[in-house]
């Protein structure tokens, strides 16, 4: 199984990196996450998530059903909003170009958290590509307004009706 997962990661690497770069190229300051949310939803649908939705706050919720209904429910969570890049002259490359240098991607949100979104969004697909539906049901939740005291996550927890055993 380990070798199949490694191969699935390798097989999807270029599209995974391309998706991450697309995320970085879309500015998404707090209260303006719509374009990033639309891209995420489109990618989840393309990758074959069992369900993809958006709540009334703007959070994106993707679901991959697990093979064992008794297994813990896992939530992969990141935020879609980001703070302003500040003065562009302080950046080695323009902040929304998603410049590639070697194996590194430079840009606003590359590490906080558009890189994490790409990893979390692709993780369930990698398992499916490797020939194994995840044992646990996996939710991928990408929330708005994290930069203002986690309002998107609080809304998700208070209004979605979802329950998770583990959140990453």
Structural class: alpha/beta
The biggest beta sheet is recorded as: 5 strands, mixed
Estimated helix fraction: 25-40%
Query: Distance N terminus to C terminus?
Result: 23 Å
Count every beta strand, where a strand is a DSSP E run of 2 or more residues.
Answer: 7
Unreliable stretches (pLDDT < 50, length at least 5) are: none
**Oligomeric status of the shown chains?**
single chain
The largest sheet has its strands arranged as: 1-2-6-3-7
- Secondary-structure element pattern, one letter each: HHEEEEEHEHE
Strand percentage lies at 15-25%
Overall morphology:
globular
Radius of gyration, in Å, reads 16 Å
Mean pLDDT: 96
Annotation field: number of helices: 4
Would you write up a description of this structure?
The protein is an alpha/beta fold and 168 residues long. It has 4 helices and 7 strands; from the N terminus they run ααβββββαβαβ. Helix 1 runs antiparallel to helix 3. The model has no long low-confidence stretch (mean pLDDT 96).
């Amino acid at each position: 199984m380990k070798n199949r997962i490694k191969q699935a990661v390798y097989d999807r690497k270029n599209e995974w990196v391309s998706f991450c770069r697309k995320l970085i190229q879309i500015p998404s300051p707090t209260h303006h996450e719509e374009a990033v949310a639309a891209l995420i939803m489109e990618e989840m649908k393309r990758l074959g998530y069992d369900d993809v939705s958006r709540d009334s706050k703007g959070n994106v919720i993707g679901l991959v059903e697990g093979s064992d209904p008794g297994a813990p429910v896992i939530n992969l969570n990141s935020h879609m909003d980001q703070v302003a890049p500040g003065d562009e002259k302080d950046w080695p490359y323009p902040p929304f170009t998603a410049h590639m240098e070697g194996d590194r991607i430079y840009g606003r949100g590359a590490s906080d958290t558009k890189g994490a979104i790409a990893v979390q969004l692709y993780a369930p697909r990698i398992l499916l590509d490797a020939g194994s539906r995840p044992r646990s049901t996996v939710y991928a939740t990408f929330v708005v307004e994290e930069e203002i005291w986690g309002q998107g996550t609080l809304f998700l927890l208070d209004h979605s009706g979802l329950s998770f055993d583990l959140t990453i």
